[in-house]
Amino acid sequence: QAEQQLRHAQKMEAIGTLAGGIAHDFNNVLTPIIGYAEIIRLSITRKNEDKESLLQFVGEILNAARRAKSLVEQILTFSRSREHKVFPQYLHPIIKEVLKLIRVTLPTNIKISQDLDEDCGMVFIDPVQFHQVLLNLCTNSAQSMGDNHGELIVSLKKSKTDQKDVEWVELCVADSGAGIARDIQERVFEPYFTTKEKGQGTGMGLAMVHGIVTRWGGHIELKSEEGLGAAFHLFFPCVASENNDEQRTTYRGALLGNERIMVVDDQEAVLKVTKKILDTLGYTVSIFSSSREAIKCFTSDPEGFDLIITDFAMPSMTGMELCAEVKKQRSNMPIILCTGYGEKFTDEDVSQAGFSAWFTKPVSLQNLAITVRKVLDSDD
User: Fold this and answer.
1) What is the pLDDT of the chain when averaged over all its residues?
2) Which of 168, 195, 297, 379 lies most in the core, judged by the most C-beta atoms within 10 Å?
3) Largest CA distance in the chain
């Protein structure tokens, strides 16, 4: 019980520290979303912007929205025992995103340099947690430089270690800050050990980084001299090349279709955008804001749809209840569960409930297209 109380206290302290950062990050995220949306609205009204510029503005909005989704994932990570999703991933896109984010928070006197080998291979990570790891290391480096002129250097490359039978991907985060004294370097990864002034950090950051990297089969090396900056070298086992090829080619083929899809969600905005995406992919889509109306339609013609996509939390009938009702009438009906909440689902939970697949909101066009095509093409 004492250990549980300690963990709870640690989590609450971390959440308190995180809250300020999350609020700051969300303000940074909302700025381009609102700004570019207003520019697009003005441009459409005045009809004086070319198509390429508008597409660029839309791209910036999408990037900011994806960042907002990632922030929500971070909140869920701290607030509950989220099941981490580890899969082969290239690191350079996440690194670029983090550096772009942190650039706006750093003083202009700090230069950011990057040297990223985009062909160094994939590693097994949870993208959300890797985002946290890199953001934490970059923030620490920035704080070590303070108000002085300095440089934050992030590099990525394939590396070799003493384990000759294993290929490694090496991420290095280095700075020209105050450095870390040799006699305390072995302690920097201990929980609550910090060299920062009071109020600048909890001392949990590097402990969290070390724990996550170790859990992925990696390790960290610190190289630093007092007054000459510090460099954190993170080593991750590289995924075998055949896995890389498989990852690139998975569902690269046609994701279009002409099947009939029912979409059920009590949020009109979600219904509209989901229908628009599926329409674009070629599907025939029927939308329902009431789960009971959806069931009534399905009952009138159980063979009239090839797939159902349903929200989880709805007022009159939940997605689970809708699934059970549909299965009574057509046991082999493929159904995809969609949720915007932080429930701790597993693939096994979803399968046992009768669903063919599931995803969390917001879902990208690519992920929606892949999931829908995968379910429709399944032999089950």
Assistant:
1) 79
2) 168
3) 76
Long-range contacts of 324-332 (CB under 8 A, 24+ apart): 324/353, 324/354, 325/295, 326/295, 326/298, 327/354, 329/298, 329/299, 329/302, 330/302, 330/303, 332/380
Task: Measure the CA–CA gap between 311 and 149, rounded to whole angstroms.
Answer: 51
What is the model's pTM?
0.48
CA distance 146 to 176: 11
Pick the CATH number of 87-244 from 3.20.20.70, 3.30.565.10, 3.30.70.120, 3.40.50.720: 3.30.565.10
The residues, any chain, with a CB within 8 Å of residue 32's CB and separated by 6 or more, are: 60, 61, 63, 64
pLDDT value for 308: 98
Is the model's pLDDT at 103 over the cut of 60?
A: yes
What single string gives the DSSP state of each residue in 243-288?
HHHHHHHTT-S------EEEEE-S-HHHHHHHHHHHHHTT-EEEEE
Taking each helix axis from N to C end, the angle separating 127-145 and 205-215, rounded to the nearest 10 degrees, works out to: 140
Confidence grade of residue 5 (pLDDT, cut at 50, 70, 90):
low
Kindly list the domain boundaries of the chain, sorted by start residue: 2-79, 87-244, 251-377
